[in-house]
Structures are given as structure tokens and as C-alpha cells.
Amino acid sequence: MADSMTEERLAGGPRPELDLTQAEWQSGSQGVGDVQIAFVEGYIAMRNRRSPEIPAVIFSPAEWRAFVLDARDGEFDLT
After folding, report:
1. If 47 and its partner were Cys, which of 56, 67, 71, 76 is the partner (CB 3.0–4.6 Å)?
2. Residue 4 phi/psi, 5° resolution?
3. What DSSP designation does 52 have?
């Protein structure tokens, strides 16, 4: 049985309010790129390195896994 936080998230509920001020942002394997991620309080935050003032996208671990697997499968390839 899912907890209420999971149910809210599955229903498109609010994202957690994470303090990202001390987050350790990581870039891609080459250390370059515009996308950065940080692991904070059991969630994964993703932001644009060139515009860090724009709020980060927050993923649960399950959402992150689905995103990564879909990206590997070319789901987001726009070419």
C-alpha cells in the first residue's frame, strides 16, 4: 500500500520543498554540459547549469530511474 506522499506524487501532487543551497551539483561524465544533478534528501534535483536561478526539477528515485531508462532508449531524442 502506497503512503500518502507517494499517492500525492502519483496524482501530480506538490513536490517537496528541498533546500538546494548546499547541494553538490554534478555535471555529465565529461564534467561539461548544461545539465547538472544533485542528490538531496532522497530526491534527485536537475537544473540548467547556465541558468541556476531557474528552479530545479525534482525527481523521486523511481521517477529518476524511469527518466534515465527512457533517455537511454532514445525516448527524448528529437533528431
Report:
1. 56
2. -65, -35
3. T
Q: How far is CA 5 from CA 12, 43, 46, 75, 78, in A?
A: 11, 13, 20, 28, 33
Question: Measured between alpha carbons, how far is 3 from 38 in angstroms, rounded to an integer?
Answer: 25
pLDDT at site 46: 94
* pLDDT tens digits, one per residue of 18-63: 999 999 999 876 656 689 999 999 999 999 989 989 999 999 999 9
78 φ/ψ angles, rounded to the nearest 5 degrees = -95, 5
Model pLDDT, residue 2 = 44
pLDDT exceeds 80 at position 7 = no
Coarse DSSP helix, strand, coil percentages of the chain, rounded to the nearest 5 percent: 25, 20, 55
